[in-house]
Amino acid sequence: RKPEQLEFRPFDxxxxxxxxxxxxxxxxxxxxxxxxxxxxxxxxxLGSPELAAMVLHNxxxxxxxxxxxxxxxxxxxxxxxxxTDTAPVIDPDVRTRMFERGVRGTSKSPGSGxxxxxxxxGCERLGWKVAYEHWEGGxxxxxxxSQG
Length: 148
Description:
With 148 residues, the protein is of the alpha+beta class.
């Protein structure tokens, strides 16, 4: 949708996360990857639920694609969403361009290279900030939320 067509209203981000959990658990069935989440009962934010669902879905989709073993953890805090995985650490050369349209980890990477560019655009429209950080066991995406 065009930005001017998006309706901003208060919504519970945890409801969207719980809907995604069902799909994620099904996708990971039979793989040596565990999914867990640390969610409050509710996390009310102001924004477009459709955009927020797209941001959440694309981040989780990437984690499922690239995590071959280990775990994926989704965590909500009062002002941020964290997605941590044990996928191979994103190459430093790719990190500088990872939010650009069409950028993929390698030529053998699955997907079209649109997911993270859509995440960035969605976050910008929502007034959120997305950032990547690597940790000794993999990758972490941190989304700072605007509150409503």
